[in-house]
Amino acid sequence: MTSTNTPDLNASREEFTPEVKGPQPRLTVDTITSDQLDELYYELAEMRGSYERACQTIAAMHKAAVGEIRGPIRGVVEDVEDVRKRAEQADAVTAETKRLMERRTTTLRERAERAEAERDGAYRERAHLLALLAALYPSVIAPAPDVDEDGWKILYLRIGGKQASWHIAPRDAELYAHVEHVPADDRRAQWDGHTTEQKYAHIGQYAARLYAAACGRVETALTPAPAPSTPLVDRPFRSHRTPGCACTYGQRCPNCRD
Predict the structure, then answer these.
(1) Paired residues of 165 in beta bridges
(2) How far apart are CA 37 and CA 35, in angstroms?
(3) pLDDT of res. 128
(4) pLDDT per residue as tens digits for the range 232-254
(5) Is-contact 157 163, C-beta < 8 A?
(6) Which of 23-37, 70-84, 217-231 has the lowest mean pLDDT?
(7) Of the N and C termini of the chain, which has fewer Cβ atoms inside 10 Å?
(8) Strand pairing of 153-159 and 139-143?
(9) What order of strands is seen across the sheet that includes strand 162-168?
(10) CA 159 to chain centre
(11) Would you say the C-alpha torsion 203, 208, 212, 217 has a positive or negative sign?
(12) Cα separation, 156 vs 140, whole angstroms
């Protein structure tokens, strides 16, 4: 290596361009010449100048477009990375939302199943009590014309001289085998127009009358009196203008069937 002087970057390229013919071997520190080194310096300077001119051109184009010159803030790589991160975050949120919805759905389904089981249990208890009332009071059971599902019935009772009716589900039908089954057009199976509120108001009033009558019988029984000629039965009772069985219970006789 005969020279280590840095070439003048403003000089013309021809001054530093050696004559090259055909492929050249790879240069090493031991084989590079001063002219070859000068050529490399020149190429490096030329590339740096090209890069700076390109940056100036881009800056001028940017200024013409937006009215100001500023350095690059973000590049395509950063934008793509952000898009990927947002996509991953969206996937994570979607997965978490799906997991929470599945857990919520499971919880709601379990609650609904428990509520349905409790409701069915309450209806089953009601059906047993109505079956008992149907054995104590005049009653008939008929198909329910207002329900499209097959198997539904309506139980009609006469309680305290008034009609009371309830819908009976198919699963409870076997509890009413002792009740007279009649067609829907039977005169005893015709709804008299009572509402649910009126029905339970009448039942409450009738129960209060029964309780008052029972309390009166207890007080009467405390006084000496002949034993009744027939055994008492657990049946509803009604008023009579005159006792029909010659008992001592006045206007209400527990042995007279309603």
Answers:
(1) 156
(2) 5
(3) 96
(4) 334 343 333 344 444 443 444 44
(5) yes
(6) 217-231
(7) N
(8) antiparallel
(9) 162-168, 153-159, 139-143, 180-181
(10) 43
(11) positive
(12) 5
